[in-house]
Each structure stands twice: as structure tokens, then as C-alpha cells.
Design goal:
With 435 residues, this protein is mainly alpha-helical. It folds into three domains: 141 residues, Cytochrome Bc1 Complex, Chain D, domain 2; 104 residues, no CATH class; 110 residues, Cytochrome Bc1 Complex, Chain D, domain 2 (Orthogonal Bundle). It is 40% helix and 6% strand. Bound molecules: heme C (3 copies).
Length: 435
């Protein structure tokens, strides 16, 4: 090697060493922050015994319902809990696994410790799990609750059901890359201390933040599907679905009393609104099974959440919908909507939600309103409301101009005062898939 080249190599070493050390330190710090290397060491298969008495199984079934395991682990038309439900993401499709005790394709030979580890750390025998699985919420679960869920799952009939292969693209298809995702976005946490709060509030916190994983939809997402803790109830578009989940906090929910809100969660209908879209599914597969005390506890917690608003910057103040309200729009409303929703948008308790003073109607992002009018809706059938009413679709029946007149009529009347909608958002929503 020539003298000059040797000198250059030395320079590289002298300059490179601090750089490489810095990178190593950063990687080390981030690895520690997501739970250290220990989380990737999955416990063994030793079958420690867990309680399996009737009371435990019953509790496990209840908890599994409120955690909505079946909602996400049942394919359309497939056997309950046998996995294979598709999760479309920006990076391709991901599938959930089989939670029945089939030893080869399900969790039949998982140990309780492995199950606990997957639920709280998000790491299974196959490696780190994608965050479409709500382990960031389930990390708050009590170990005895997890064991009860496991005992109940193991008591179900085993179903042979191999998981379809994911069709994720690029880096997303590589499970090991989730270590990087975790370093950036996952922080093990415990629920904040609730000093001075009563038992109902604490139970509500556990159910809303933990088992119920409500922020999965009601939170605003950051890069790569990550969740921003401070904005976890700020509301936002649900990725790939084109529905908006509204903010949940004491201001956004101010019109609800605690008992009305508990009714809504349990039955899907309530004095101030009715569950539709993805929320109807959550109520149908999960929340309708809430025990009354738990529904009241969740309502107490939700009605105490401090508001954190995420407000988009607008280039210019938009036109107000109320400036477009006229005789013609009132006539269209009377003709097509008033029979059910009332002349003044007052609705009918238990049957038709009010449109008056309704934040869903006046939401800045109008996609739910446009969509429900285009495609119609049926409230979920629940134990508390077994024969729900439905709303017909208007997308084919009315012209774009008529639709816009009605949409702006309800956004600018009955106590609602929202920005007007023009043709563009209407066409964007028309282009969304029906599901
Ligand atoms: C919001 C949807 C969702 C909910 C709710 C959900 N899961 Fe999952 N779960 C998933 C997805 C998606 C995966 C696959 C993740 C992966 O492949 O990395 C998964 C994976 C798992 C795994 C790892 C083994 C496997 O099948 O890949 C276990 C164990 C699990 N879930 C248990 C549960 C239990 C128990 C509940 C209810 C308390 C539950 N899940 C609720 C979406 C969900
Ligand atoms: C799969 C996504 C999803 C999940 C999970 C979810 N929600 Fe929703 N939620 C929605 C959507 C979309 C809406 C708007 C449609 C509607 O009002 O039914 C909504 C509406 C609501 C409303 C009505 C708000 C209002 O002012 O009218 C409440 C209350 C609510 N959700 C509570 C919850 C709670 C509590 C949980 C957790 C147990 C939860 N949601 C989980 C998607 C979801
Ligand atoms: C035949 C009765 C009927 C007619 C006509 C009808 N709706 Fe509805 N509407 C319903 C029912 C029932 C629901 C609850 C659906 C659900 O929960 O899935 C609903 C829900 C809604 C909601 C969601 C409210 C919330 O917060 O839960 C909006 C907005 C709405 N309708 C607007 C309209 C407009 C605008 C028209 C006229 C173009 C109209 N509806 C016509 C029965 C009707």
C-alpha cells in the first residue's frame, strides 16, 4: 500500500470511528427504549398450569369479546377465531392468525408464558408482530386477564386453518424490519397513575386504553402506521377504509350524558347518535357484550378525557354551509330525510339519530356524512336493539347537485354550522370502495 493511501485510511478511521460509535449509541438507546433485547427472547413451551375452572373460562370469554379478538381473527365467512382476516395497509395486505387450539395452525402448543409475551410485548415465536395487532394497548392488560383469555381460547374447538401468506411489499414484508419500527415507535408503558380517581374511572381507563384499544381507530396516525400517544383520541381517518373516527373527549362528547353514552356503546343506538360503518362492527362483535358497570365505567373515562384538537391549516376561510341553505334545499330535506330524522333534524330516540347539533354532521372532514348519505346504513343488531332501523342509500337516487344541496342543508341548519361541501369531496367519496 502506498504511503498516501495508508494515510488516507488512517483519516477514514479517525473520522469514521466517532461516527460509527455515535450510530451504535443511538441504536443501543433506541433498542433499550423499545424494551431491550430481552423482548425478542420468547419464553419456552413449558405448559405451566393456569386456572381453567368454569368461572375463569366465562371471564376469559367476556374479556375476549371486549378485546374483540373474534372481530379481527375471523375471516369473512370463516370459522370464528380461525384467523385469516385481511388487513389492507398502505404496504399491502396482512393476515391475522388462527387463535383456535389447533396444534399446527393455531395456538394449541403455545405456553401461557408465550401467549402473555405476545400480548404484552408484541413478539411471538415467529418474531415481532405487526402493529395491526393492538399489542401497544394490550400491554396494559393484567396477567390474570390474559391467562383467562388464553384458557378460554384453549377451551374452544380447534380449527385447522393455515394463515394466508401476507402480500406486503418491500421493507414491510420483512418481519425483522419491525425491530426498526419498534425502535422508532414502540415504547413499553404502564397506564398513568390514577391517584384520586374512583374505581369506575380506573376500570374505564383499563377498558378504553387497554383491552378496548379504542385509539386504534380514534387516534391520529403518524409515519408508518404509528400512533401518536398525545393524539390518541384526536380522531382521524381510518387508514384504507375512508371512514373518519371522531375525536373522543369531554368536549367532543359534551352532548352525551354518562348513561346515554353507555347505552350507545352497548346497543349501538343512543339519544345523540347511532353507530355506523366500522363502529357498527365494533359494537356488533364486541361492545354489545359489555356488562352495564363496564359500559358506565368506559363512559365515565371518555367523558373525562381532556380535549386535544388537531386542526388542519386552511388556505382561506371556507364558505359556510348556512349561506347555501334556501327554500330548495329545505324542500329536498323535507322530501328525502325528514320522515325519519324529523323536520328540524330532531330524530327519534332509539330509532333515528338526530341531525341537529350533531358533530358527525358538522365534522370538518365530511366523509362520514357524505358516505352514509350515498350508501345508506344499518345500525348494528345487538342484544339491546335486536331489530335496528336502517337508512336507504341516496347515491343513485339523487343527482350530485341535489345531494350537495341536502348535505349543505344539514351542515348549515338545526344548530350545525360547518364549512360547505363542494363537488370535489363528493366525488372523492363516490370513488371509495363500498366496504
Ligand atoms: C385490530 C385487530 C386485532 C384485534 C382486536 C386482535 N388482534 Fe390479534 N392479531 C391481529 C393481527 C393483524 C395479527 C397478526 C400480526 C402479525 O402477523 O404480525 C394478530 C396476531 C395475534 C397473535 C400472534 C399470533 C398470530 O396469530 O399471529 C396473538 C396471540 C393474538 N393476535 C391474540 C389476540 C387476542 C387474544 C385478541 C383479543 C384479546 C386479539 N389478538 C385481538 C389483529 C388483531
Ligand atoms: C374499527 C375502528 C373503531 C374502533 C376500534 C372504535 N371506534 Fe368508535 N367510531 C369509529 C367510527 C368510524 C365512528 C364514526 C361513526 C359512528 O358514529 O358510528 C365511531 C364513533 C364512535 C362514537 C360516537 C361519537 C359521537 O360523538 O357520535 C363513540 C362514543 C365511540 N366511537 C367510542 C368508541 C370506543 C369507546 C371504542 C373502544 C371500545 C371505539 N369507539 C372503538 C370507529 C371505531
Ligand atoms: C328511512 C329512514 C331514513 C331516511 C329517509 C334517512 N335516514 Fe339518515 N339515518 C337513518 C338511520 C336508521 C340511521 C342510523 C344508521 C346507523 O346507525 O347505521 C341514520 C343515520 C344518519 C346519519 C348519521 C348520524 C349519526 O351521528 O349517527 C346521518 C348524517 C344521516 N342519517 C343523514 C341523513 C340524510 C341527510 C338523509 C336524507 C338524504 C337521511 N339521513 C335519510 C334513517 C334514515
Amino acid at each position: 500500500m502506498s504511503r498516501a493511501r495508508l494515510a488516507r485510511s488512517w483519516w477514514w478511521l479517525i473520522l469514521g470511528f466517532p461516527f460509527v460509535s455515535l450510530v451504535l449509541v443511538v441504536v443501543g438507546v433506541l433498542l433499550a427504549a423499545q424494551g431491550g433485547l430481552a423482548v425478542f427472547a420468547v419464553p419456552g413451551e413449558d405448559q405451566a398450569s393456569i386456572a381453567q375452572d368454569a368461572a375463569t373460562l366465562q371471564r376469559g370469554e367476556y374479556l375476549a369479546r371486549i378485546g374483540n379478538c373474534a372481530g379481527c381473527h375471523t375471516a369473512r365467512g370463516g370459522k370464528e377465531l380461525a384467523g385469516g382476516r385481511a388487513f389492507p395497509t398502505d404496504w399491502g395486505v396482512l393476515y391475522s392468525g388462527n387463535l383456535t387450539p389447533d396444534p399446527d395452525t393455531g395456538i394449541g402448543n403455545w405456553s401461557p408464558a408465550q401467549f402473555r409475551h405476545a400480548m404484552t410485548q408484541g413478539v411471538a415465536r415467529t418474531g415481532p408482530l405487526y402493529p395491526a395487532f393492538p399489542f401497544q394497548h394490550f400491554q396494559h392488560l393484567d396477567p390474570t386477564d390474559i391467562d383467562a383469555i388464553f384458557a378460554w381460547l384453549r377451551s374452544r374447538p380447534g380449527v385447522v386453518s393455515p394463515r394466508p401468506a401476507n402480500t406486503l411489499k418491500g421493507l414491510a414484508s420483512w418481519r425483522t424490519a419491525l425491530i426498526g419500527w419498534r425502535m422508532l415507535f414502540h415504547r413499553p408503558a404502564t397506564l398513568p397513575q390514577a391517584a384520586g380517581r374512583d374505581a369506575a374511572w380506573q376500570r374505564g381507563q383499563y377498558l378504553v386504553e387497554g383491552l378496548g384499544h379504542c385509539a386504534m381507530c380514534h387516534g391520529r396516525r403518524g409515519l408508518f402506521g404509528s400512533q401518536e400517544p398525545a393524539l390518541r383520541f384526536a380522531g382521524g381517518r381510518i387508514p384504507q377504509q375512508g371512514w373518519v373516527a371522531p375525536p373522543l373527549d369531554r368536549e367532543a362528547l359534551a352532548r352525551w350524558s354518562r348513561t346515554d353514552l353507555a347505552d350507545y356503546l352497548q346497543t349501538g343506538v343512543g339519544r345523540h347518535g347511532s353507530a355506523f360503518g366500522p363502529m357498527a362492527e365494533v359494537v356488533h362483535t364486541s361492545l354489545q357484550y359489555l356488562e352495564r358497570d363496564d359500559a358506565l365505567a368506559m363512559a365515565a373515562y371518555l367523558l373525562d378525557l381532556p380535549p386535544v384538537r388537531w386542526v388542519p391549516r386552511l388556505d382561506r376561510p371556507p364558505q359556510r354551509a348556512r349561506d347555501l341553505v334556501d327554500q330548495a334545499s329545505a324542500g329536498l330535506y323535507r322530501q328525502h330525510c325528514a320522515d325519519c330524522h324529523g323536520r328540524d333534524g330532531e330524530g327519534e330516540a332509539g330509532a333515528y339519530p338526530p341531525l341537529a347539533n350533531n358533530p358527525q354532521v358538522a365534522a370538518l372532514d365530511p366523509v362520514n356524512l357524505i358516505r352514509i348519505v350515498l350508501i345508506g346504513a344499518a345500525a348494528p343488531s345487538t342484544r339491546g336493539n335486536p331489530a335496528p332501523h336502517s337508512m336507504p342509500p341516496f347515491g343513485q337516487r339523487l343527482s350530485d347537485a341535489q345531494l350537495l344541496a341536502i348535505l349543505n342543508h344539514v351542515r348549515g341548519s338545526f344548530g350545525n354550522d360547518a364549512p360547505a361541501i363542494d363537488r370535489q369531496p363528493l366525488q372523492r367519496v363516490r370513488a371509495l370502495p363500498l366496504e
